Amino acid sequence: xxxxxLSVLFVAASVAGLAQNVQLHYDFGxxxxxxxxxxxxxxxxxxxxxxxxxxxxxxxxxxxxxxxLDYASGVKGAYWEIAREFCFWQQSKWSxxxxxxxxxxxxxxxxxxxxxxxxxxxxxxxxxxxxxKTWSISMMYKFIPHTVNAAGESSxxxxxxxxxxxxxxxxxxxxxxxxxxxxxxxxxxxxxxxIMLAEPQLWLNFNKIKGWDKVNLSVGTxxxxxxxxxxxxxxxxPTLAAKWTF
Length: 246
Known about the structure:
Radius of gyration: 19 Å
Helix content: under 10%
Number of domains: 1
Oligomer: single chain
CATH superfamily: Nucleoside-specific channel-forming protein, Tsx-like
Number of helices: 3
């Protein structure tokens, strides 16, 4: 496990040179849910998480990935997603439609490897004239190997719906961005198969301060809103965050 975590750290350091932004989040979930007798492993993330994120369009579509590293006396877990949009017809009236391919996976010191997830489908995307507002929605088939339902039957074939948005407002001083996922995944130990996860973010951008145009620092918050994600039930976990955009 230590070798695997070191490998993930090496990959994260390598891709940081290509990243659009790096984020550091301080998680308040421990303070909120400890009062209810919940443990860290029950509701999810440790107190510190770093995120390396990149989005890059090209003449054939776009590529997006992010890597999360969770810390609790060292690296506790790592998770990453990489998604590719294929749009070979960008100059046509169908430019709003693309073919979507995605992989999700990771590991945790306590739980071991997460289930690999392979996704494929279609994405509708749009933007305002000045690109200050962007959005997309993806409808996908989701393959989760080796999963079974409560009856012990294979339940590898599932679906996922994902919405993503980004809004710059107040002349670029503020950014409201995030995603929402809804998918089916049979989890007999939780007695559920419908899962929702959303992570809206709100940022104040320091590069709008006069003379600070090269200081690409943002401070803000993220709220992890989930239902039946790590544990059964609803959770709302806020963070205090800083972001540097390259």
